[in-house]
Amino acid sequence: MFKTKNDLSEKIRAQAITLLNERLADCIDLQTQAKQAHWNVKGPNFIALHELFDQVNSIVEDYVDEIAERAVQLGGIAEGTARMAASRSSLSEYPSTAVDGHSHVEALSTALATFGRSARSAITIANDLGDLDTADLFTEVSRGIDKWLWFVEAHLQAER
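Structure tokens predicted for DNA starvation/stationary phase protection protein Dps:
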């Protein structure tokens, strides 16, 4: 770890950095899954879903940056290469067979929900560590992911 004048103890910072890098892997995976959906969606709702999935990708990219930068602020290294993310992500593999809008909406909403659950868990862990700034970061991420999950899931909910 790098030296910093941040007043959190080295032990707390080390645990927070580990937590941040775990969620960073998930977030990078989520971003690439949104892009996979964006590139490959087909069907009658193509343009709406194509644009929605790109918006999800864009906001998740911002979360990737925020999570990575927080790890570095604490004296750590952001572990965010594609290979690092692939080996550490807790998200399920995106289905390569997804083509139609419904399949992509189902797959991406599952990934968003999984990541949202992990972000909420990270809030509790960071709070228990006493790193309220990291907890606040994950609160922001969780709130945003829930919003985008709502936007994506709305395409499934009309089919009650």
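The two ends are 51 Å apart (CA to CA).
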